[in-house]
Amino acid sequence: MMHRTNSANGHGAHSVSATSAHANNLDIDRGQGPAGVDKKTRTKVVAASFIGNFVEWFDYAVYGYLAVTITAVFFPESDPATGLMLTFALFAISFLVRPLGGFVWGHLGDKIGRREALSWSILIMSAATFCIALIPSYDTIGIWAPILLLIIRVVQGFSASGEYAGASAFLVEYAPANRRGLYAAVVPASTATGLLLGSLLAALLTGLLEPEQMQSWGWRLPFLLAAPMGLIGRYIRTRLEDSPVFKELAKEDNADNAPVSSLFKNHWRQLVQAVGAVLLNAVGFYLILSYMPTHLSQNIGLSETASYVATTVALTTYIGFIFVVGILSDRFGRKKVLMSASILFVLLTVPAFMLLETGNFLIVVLVQILLGAMLSLNDGTLPSYLAEMFPTRVRYSGFAVSFNLSNALFGGTAPFVATVLIASSGTDLAPGWYLMGAAIISLVAVSFSVETSKKPLA
Asked: How far apart are CA 6 and CA 159, in angstroms?
């Protein structure tokens, strides 16, 4: 077990180094940053934001990728379809607390600082994920097993609600004005890298272990990694200072004492637009990058290992697409790129799901790469788009509330809704139609927003 943990940590460190090197190749440090911030400091900010978000979303990914095994451990008395719906229902319920977490972390981030909020969020998330590995099975403690799983999942949801928004705001405020899109793209890239490691571990474990071994102890191994990785992320973050723009705001006597109240009073239009813009990202992210291995193995007929391998290949290309999209959004603007993503999803999602039904492994991989490329147009642009929509006083709050509200309603519920839609409609195309509807709503929301990529941070 210790050997596996060290190997995974080494892989995580390699992912961070590789991504940092890739970012340098993309000339991420070119351009004038905020006054008094040198290249070395900005590099530390990128690394801290990357590894923290990577740890958070690795924890989330593992649950999604091991959903079938978790169903057998916590809901053994249910039939497979019902048990899987219960597993994804727990996944969805944990998202219901995320709007509350968005309010809390947003307030803390705008009031006491981005760094402090981010340091605590990763600590709580990692501790909760580690505890999942320690929960006895249903066969051991009965109904208390899924109850304990639910409680810990709620704690996870609360802590994760401050991560994505805080890391994005942190990067945008440290970034050179003409590289905010590229800097903010580090956040979804780190998210995808967390998913990638989760997919690799799931493929490795299901390939090497027998089903009985997976249900007994194999599924616990990835969750145990949360503790050491979380401590590393917290250590790096506590060695940083808050962004210059936030420190300057903190010096003012008229600093906002109630940023969330100010958000709803003075910036409600931007908030509504942001919730709509996030909708495609929320549904697409969890359907394409988290739920897909389950869909491929349970509905399309691929083996679990083949499903994980296909998702792993798609995630690898997706990470590269993210950085390219960050550059495109800096050059052409956030609105054009986001609207292009929505239009592509409207036109191509259902045909893509039709191709998945062939069950041909090569076709499945190519379709997943296509869907990932389409999603990257949205995911790679959204962090800078949301951060630029709100002024510094309420940036963390505006981002956290809008992002987590949309994810709570539509993101965390996406695997559950997809499972229910397939069961009730009898067609495996149901998730594609659901994703297409989300794209239409996001297209309308973004079309009414203002382009901010060329404007200074308010």
From this structure: 25
CB 414 within 8 A of CB 291: yes
The pTM score is 0.78
Confidence class for position 411, pLDDT limits 50, 70, 90: confident
Tell me, what DSSP letter sits at residue 96?
G
**Type of residue at 237:** R
Mean pLDDT of 343-352: 95
Task: For residue 338, give the nearest of 397, 279, 287 by alpha carbon.
Answer: 279
pLDDT, one tens digit per residue, over 32-42 is 556 556 778 88
Q: Which helix (H) or strand (E) holds 440?
A: helix 430-447
Q: From residue 288, how far is each of 307, 353, 365, 369, 447 by CA, in Å? A: 12, 11, 12, 10, 24
Alpha carbon distance 268, 275 (integer Å): 11
How far CA 181 is from CA of 165, 169, 317, 452, in Å, comes to 14, 11, 19, 11
Tokens for 127, please give them.
Answer: 């501790």
- Which DSSP state fits 134? T
Higher pLDDT, 119 or 376: 376
Residue-range domains of the chain with CATH: 23-249+257-447 (1.20.1250.20)
Spatial separation of the C-alpha atoms in residues 356 and 231, rounded to whole Å:
40
- Asked if residue 33 lies in contact with residue 174, where contact means CB atoms within 8 angstroms, the answer is yes
Residue 234 clears pLDDT 90, i.e. is over it: no
pLDDT in tens, 289-304: 778 888 888 888 888 7
Output the CA–CA distances (angstroms, integers) from residue 124 to 3, 129, 157, 250, 285, in the order listed. Answer: 25, 9, 10, 26, 23
Q: Which ranges in 66-143 belong to alpha helices (H)?
A: 67-74, 80-93, 98-111, 114-132, 138-141
Residue 320 burial (C-beta neighbours within 10 Å; 0-12, 13-18, 19+): middle
φ, ψ at 38 (rounded to 5°): -95, 175
